[in-house]
Fold these 2 entries.
Entry 1:
Amino acid sequence: MRVLYVLMAVIQFSFAFHAVKTGRGCMWVTLILVFPVLGCLAYYFMEVFPNSSEERILRRRMRAFAKSMSPDAELHKRAQELAINPSIDNRCKLAEELAGRRKFDDALRLYETCLEGPYAKDKTLLKRIEDTRAAKLAAMEQPFAA
């Protein structure tokens, strides 16, 4: 039982030290010292976890899981955004999504509709069109690659 008390004291000290070191204020130190377990948990999930690499990994895994459950969700989202606002940016995002799904002809058509007005000679758009054409040629050489 003493080991548990010592361990909790070390954990409390560590969290309190982190709060002081990162300038998070006396409120967190007080909360950690008055409510050892709850204070440490609250501090971790409200201050430490949102900025950690574990949170980024968790978000990436959640996106991958959501994509596996509904693989066309992003494509539908991009198409809806384009229907609401047919801007160059929305056309490019939908074209990128289409190219990622190996629908190169549709993506190229969308990219070519972007080449108008001040964007007629836009180097970024021209590079994207060139990259999509290269990906199309590579896909034609390897038709069964995923």
Entry 2:
Amino acid sequence: MTIRRGSPRKPFRGGGKNSARRGSDRGYPPKKVQSVRKRRLNLKRMTEFKWEINQLMNDLPENQRGTVKGSLIAKADKLDINAALDFVQLKIDEGVLSKDMADRIADLLLKFSTYR
């Protein structure tokens, strides 16, 4: 009587040196590719940043304050600090922000940023 190995549904396929189970096809996860690190807003200090930016933008009208603040936070968080600084420069050119306020916002962005 012979003992049959493996399941009865799947016949045993003996693998030699060139079997498909050898080498890179062993089910290992692919190697991770490191993404490019950018200078972005530090998420651990987000509440502090929002409080500081609210204190700076008290001089703006209510309808402009919310849109500028929201866009600034989104660009600094999702894209990078340079995109947020370009947005601040655009708002200076449109006349929404003064040069002094823009300088203080730029200092805040650099203070509350990290590479991630």
